[in-house]
Recover the amino acids of this structure.
């Protein structure tokens, strides 16, 4: 079942505090940093080309996503990498995470990408089953102890 009206919005002074208040379940905290920490990391690491948005369902902020958008250097130079994906604990299990991945995949495909990367820290309750179900596959690479995943992005079918 899909959630009505899942979309991405820029984080502004009007919604920043509501987005920063979003939280994952207690057992997920080891896998997903807070929105506040994510925004601090983005500010400290401009070379990583951070691109982030609030996830909304209707008019309600329900999550946060941050990518490294084709950074000019580093291991992901010129590629799209999901740096952070957080769905608030109150909204998990409703298909929002899948919808966000679909939105992101469409955005990066429109930017010319043939793949979307992410990584996760292995452990009890890890997000690998979620990513696997969506179509991600391990690349064989490990980055700072995290397993790197790849989602192949075939070209969108042309509307002919």
């Amino acid at each position: 079942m899909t959630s009505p009206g899942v979309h991405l919005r820029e984080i502004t002074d009007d919604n920043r505090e509501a987005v920063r208040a979003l939280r994952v379940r207690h057992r997920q905290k080891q896998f997903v940093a807070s929105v506040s920490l994510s925004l601090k990391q983005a500010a400290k690491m401009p070379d990583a080309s951070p691109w982030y948005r609030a996830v909304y369902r209707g008019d309600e902020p329900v999550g946060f996503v941050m990518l490294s958008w084709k950074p000019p250097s580093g291991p992901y130079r010129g590629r799209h990498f999901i740096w952070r994906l957080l769905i608030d604990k109150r909204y998990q299990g409703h298909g929002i995470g899948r919808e966000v991945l679909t939105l992101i995949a469409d955005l990066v495909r429109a930017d010319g990408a043939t793949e979307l990367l992410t990584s996760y820290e292995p452990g009890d309750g890890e997000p690998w089953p979620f990513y696997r179900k969506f179509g991600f596959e391990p690349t064989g690479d490990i980055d700072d102890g995290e397993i790197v995943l790849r989602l192949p992005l075939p070209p969108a079918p042309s509307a002919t």
